[in-house]
């Protein structure tokens, strides 16, 4: 072949500075791009052979990544389809986009390397992010083809001549520039290959690694081991998501989970195998992990692949937001390898994928609920966060989840929305016909209020989860007709579920005013409003409550529920004095000092039952209690 020199057809000499400048922050993707190209070339020769268009031996298609620290080169070699000199000129020398000026203008402020590469077909040229010279040595599969050698120093000039490759395939040799010496490090390259190429469909070899294997027995009959060097194959070419669910056991799914998340100590609760080919192509496996606390929610993310090439673990626009709590893999060839955020937001297939995943998850949860209610209840502690988040944020998911979402009471019994409505609708109904759902957000701190409710024959729901303040509002709207959610400590129980029967106050108007004055002076706190009320005499002498509406708004403000104004308001409580309690009658007949001390003691007992008595106040309360003995 006669040596030839020429100019790359890009209509500007500024393209390489643009690539280096705008893609530099994502420069590690050069290896993903070049290895993916090598895999594509390998799969093409396999396909041509299957179609009868190539009659030679396909042979070993392993792709090699080689590092030469001395020569400062990285070489990606494949035994794929190869290229002729003419094909190199066609596919390498002509960058496929129109108007380099438009390119320069559009992306002068760009920082999304994937968008630039994907839109303008610059995958191969990502090599120039890290190399100041790139060579291609290639031999086409075509009978009688001559090997071709191409080289370019990062300018628009190239040279092409006869190559030295004697077997079918392509070598891409990168001469790493001074700014990118970090890539002349074996551990760094291994890290990139593990990240992007872990599940590519063709074996990827990166040198060798040491392996310990048994080598007979010693004189005592004990096994003897030796270290041997073996090929360092970095990828699993047939990950679980590429197989049919019928060919996989539960153990296969669990082993793949730990392959994805090798540092996870827990087993997933269950999983969903995605497999659809119309109206889009999508495969994958989503796992429901155990979440021990809120800090772990984003620990492990869903990984997005395109034809087994890792793209990103930022899948916000593909997976519904509430399912970002899941783990696993999604693979879709309909999502390009060089995907950009703007593409995801605009692409119609992405929206369809989003809806499909939502439906699959809802169907799977419903299936588990119907086939194994007991097992579903046992998992509720771990999965209720997913479900409640989904119901609050996704209307279509909520429609399906209403059938399997559970309400748990303080006695650890579980009910569907319909079941719970039937349980309490005839008992927990107030004089206006409202069905009152009582709930607690802290069983230990609100125990006295729970006990008071149970003494009336009422049921109390356990709403201690991080989303339950918001979820209370959802239950009011969707749980049944005329439902009102009230936290069990938001008023005395007879006010929470007010009945027609009236309890008479044993105090006169004058005694009521006197009792109010005594307690206001003894308490002396601006955030506590005293109110004497007619309650059963065996109820507590003093109760401290916070209005349900105000308390719920403040709780929502704390969890980012858009109620910021309420979050700035101080806490205000109602102190309900039981005018029918014997202690109140005793206070009214005591001298001023004793009355004040008894009132203060009763108030502090109420504070203590709410967990509001701490520090010096608690110490003083204990001291007074000892003195009263």
TrEMBL record:
Please report the organism this UniProt entry assigns to the protein: Sphingobacterium lactis
* SMART domains referenced in this protein's UniProt entry, alphabetically: HATPase_c
Q: Which InterPro entries match?
A: HATPase_C_sf, HATPase_dom, HSP90_C, Hsp90_fam, Hsp90_N, Ribosomal_Su5_D2-typ_SF
Record: residues binding ATP: 33, 37, 78, 83, 98-99, 170, 341
- Coiled-coil boundaries: none
Instruction: Please give the Pfam families that the UniProt record associates with this protein.
Output: HATPase_c_3, HSP90
Ordered alphabetically, the record's keywords are:
ATP-binding, Chaperone, Cytoplasm, Nucleotide-binding, Stress response
Q: Where is the Histidine kinase/HSP90-like ATPase domain?
A: 26-180
Q: Name one GO molecular function term.
A: ATP-dependent protein folding chaperone
Is the keyword Transferase assigned to this protein?
A: no
Q: What is the top-level taxon of the source organism?
A: Bacteria
Q: Can you name this protein?
A: Chaperone protein HtpG
- Family, per entry: Belongs to the heat shock protein 90 family.
